Amino acid sequence: MQTAFLIYTFLYLFALLFILPFEYFKRPSQLRKKWIKEKFGFFSKRESKLPTVWVHAVSVGEVVSVSRMVKELSKKYRIVLTTITDTGQKVAKERFKDFNVDIFYMPFDIPFAINKFLRNFSPVAIIITETELWPNLIRIGSQNTSVILVNGRISDRSYKGYCKVKFFIKSLLRKMSLICVQEYQYREKLINLGAEDEKIYVTGNMKFDIEIKEIKFSWEKYIPNPVILAGSTHEPEEEIILDSFLKLSIDGTLMLAPRHPERFIEVENLIRKKISNSDKKILFSKLSSFHSVPSNQNQTLILLIDQMGILGSLYRVCDLAIVGGSFIPHGGQNPLEPAYWKKPIICGPYMDNFPFIEEFIREKACLIVDKDSLVSAMKDLIENPKLSETIGNRAYQLFLNKAGATKRTIKLIEKLIP
User: Fold this and answer.
1) Nearest 5°: phi and psi at 121?
2) CA Rg value for the chain
3) What is the distance between the alpha carbons of residues 76 and 418, in angstroms, rounded to a whole number?
4) Domains of the chain and CATH, by start
5) Predicted TM-score (pTM) of this structure
6) Segment 375-387, tens digit of pLDDT
């Protein structure tokens, strides 16, 4: 098995030679020095009287899902939280600014960087979120501390891939002290891959325990109604949603929130192109520069959400939510944020990342449509406020019924670590 880890490390380093310049220069200049230092394991050490727990959450979605757990654990432990993405860093710093949490980039998964991180912080536990199976992190970390997987899940695609290297994945899973998964189907898959039965628990989905700050936006009373919010969209979903919105032939507001900030300019150009080709007068603004619209009645507004970390709060403002990542074979983005605000939800046919959506469908707590029927679904919900209210309330009730995963997970963690 040692040979397998050596081969993995060699391949990782080989790939790193090619991607390192791109990853370095794609970041804003003010972040580059911090990023490169931390990726190679060089950190500013801060003394703490509390034992340290290392929590790794790859990006925004994972940071949001473990927020309650991190805040609760920070009462007893010093939390060192790592992310891979810049947006994950930004959201984490905002969410945990008043808590005992230090935020860094996760070091490269090479022995030198991982060992340097562990020597610096000496964590009593390493908590990995969802599906972040980094071989050297798990192998080296498990030698002196507990490695824990929380809110675990495994897609059908990942499962098929892992089955091809089952001998390797089994060795990683066996090094973990505790595995907490969202659904029973994930438990079965991980056991089939080699996880030990007595170490794996179904605790539920921590994303149901989200806390969303209620923000009163100064501009919200100025936007035309109804308001449709398409959140965490991917290419080419913006065009699909824009075309559908324009076919509605109604006044109102469409808010488009791309998943990745590097696509803001691309999406802005697409919106301007669509507006220029439309016979209807349509107003456009980026949220960062938006204040109000003219007081004339019967206005149509397209608002590009070019700010990160506020999407969950924005859903409160809308009358209808469209979940991005679901109209392409991506697996969907989190539908729970609009459910939190009792909003009617429309998803595309690709929601594989969220198996619980099947229950939402059975309970008629959301609509699943393809791109050809998106227009009629939007029209039905806009023209039938009672139907919208009913669907939103059903989604909220399911959201409440599935809460509690964080509490169950923390209870298991505290039994394991000092």
Assistant:
1) -105, -20
2) 22
3) 10
4) 30-205+403-416 (3.40.50.11720), 220-401 (3.40.50.2000)
5) 0.79
6) 999 999 999 999 9
